[in-house]
Amino acid sequence: MNRARGLGFSLREVAAHLDSPQDHTRKSRLLSSMEDKIRELDSLLADLQSRRATLLSLTVELRRTEC
Questions:
Q1: What DSSP character marks residue 9?
Q2: Closest Cα to residue 2, out of 17, 20, 14, 12?
Q3: Where is each Transcription regulator MerR DNA binding domain found (predicted)?
Q4: pLDDT category, 62, cuts 50, 70, 90?
């Protein structure tokens, strides 16, 4: 459970998986959940990269206008 939490899954998500039926679709449900988490991380990374680029640009601009 700690590994799942460390990867960004909520306690609710972990519990839902553990409580899900152990049938032939369990693996596909887990894969789908993991792919959703990857998309969330990709979106977060893109947002962080955008913020970083903005901060770098502002830093360069401020350095040019130093007194």
A1: -
A2: 14
A3: 3-58
A4: very high
Rg (CA), the chain: 20
Query: Which amino acid is located at 61 in the chain?
Result: E
Domain residue limits, the chain: 2-64
Sign (positive or negative) of CA dihedral 17, 9, 47, 53: negative
DSSP one-letter code for 8: T
Residues whose CB falls within 8 Å of the CB of residue 9, separated by 6 or more in sequence, listed in order: 33, 37
Q: Could you tell me where the DSSP H helices lie in 1-67?
A: 2-6, 11-19, 26-64
Q: How far apart are CA 66 and CA 34, in angstroms?
A: 48
pTM recorded for the entire structure? 0.76
**Residue that has been written with the tokens 């990857």 in this structure:** 38
